[in-house]
Design a protein that fits this description.
about 280 residues, alpha/beta, Alpha-Beta Plaits, Rossmann fold, seven-stranded mixed β-sheet, four-stranded antiparallel β-sheet, about 35% helix, about 25% strand, globular
Length: about 280
């Protein structure tokens, strides 16, 4: 058995026989299913499926699997994707002054825990340049000048497009991305928000939580959309806090959550375990 696999992702309306059709396709071309999971949302009728199969002995070349599967997808009105395991996605990182999420991702990348390539780190501050140099990753500094946000976003987009990114991650990038940016970036964008969404959206969520006297704070990783902090949620976690905790205690505890939740979300995405439908996600963990 080889280490080279294909991941088939499917979303469509639920119908009888879908699992059998997918399994039959893989079997008919000599494939061996290594992992498969599916879910049907009974309220919406959405069917979502993730199937991993070995490419050793598979009779269709990897680059032609999409074409071979398309007739089945057409019959069942499926949206589908094929991903081959031996290609590491290019991940562009955007960061501002808080560097804890950035550094955690870089360390996991260096240790081989995240199967990615990082062709560029982009920031509106110069704080993170030291880390980029330390990990020998190109760094781009594009400050946001008053009245020139559109120009700065164009610089960021040009930089991302020049290296061909498959994913953009916002490692505490403290700028609101415009709808134009999200439409033109050409790939998913993952944000880490320092709150357990949908509570305490926007700026200073730990201050908001402290003012409300909450007993639990959290962190949320989600796909960025034009609606601020409203994108489909990938991963979340929480920690208890008490009446003796100050705002700074909440921030310290929250940062520990942020790095873990952010790394989990990136891993889930690059392993193609997340399927989006509407405002929700199915995560095949």
């Amino acid at each position: 058995m080889s280490n080279r696999t294909a991941i088939l992702l499917i979303t469509c309306q639920d119908q009888k026989g879908l699992v059998a059709r997918v399994s039959g396709f893989i079997h008919d071309f000599g494939g061996n299913i290594l992992d498969s999971d599916h879910h049907t949302d009974r309220e919406t009728g959405d069917f979502l499926m993730r199937t991993v199969f070995d490419l050793e002995g598979f009779q269709v070349p990897a680059e032609e699997i999409e074409t071979a599967f398309r007739p089945i997808a057409k019959v069942h009105d499926m949206n589908f994707q094929i991903h081959i395991s031996d290609r590491k996605p290019n991940v562009g990182i955007l960061v501002s002054q808080y560097d804890h999420c950035l550094v955690d991702v870089l360390q996991r990348f260096r240790r081989g825990e995240l199967a990615i390539e990082i062709p560029v780190i982009i920031s509106n501050h110069q704080t993170a340049e030291w880390w980029a140099r330390a990990f020998e990753i190109p760094f781009q500094y594009f400050p946001v000048q008053p009245g020139e946000k559109a120009k700065q976003e164009r610089q960021v987009l040009d930089s991302l497009h020049s290296v061909g990114v498959d994913l953009v991650v916002l490692a505490r990038y403290m700028q609101i991305l415009t709808e134009t940016f999200l439409q033109q970036v050409g790939c998913p964008v993952i944000n880490i928000h320092h709150s357990f969404l949908p509570a305490f959206v926007g700026a200073k969520p730990y201050h908001q939580a402290y003012d409300r006297g909450v007993k639990i704070i959290g962190a949320t990783a989600h796909y960025a959309t034009a609606e601020l902090d409203e994108g489909p949620i990938i991963e979340q976690d929480v920690v208890r806090v008490g009446h003796r905790d100050t705002v700074q205690d909440l921030i310290r505890k929250g940062r520990d959550l942020e790095v873990m939740v952010f790394a989990r979300a990136i891993r889930l995405h690059i392993e193609r375990r997340v399927l989006v439908y509407g405002r929700k996600t199915v995560v095949f963990d």
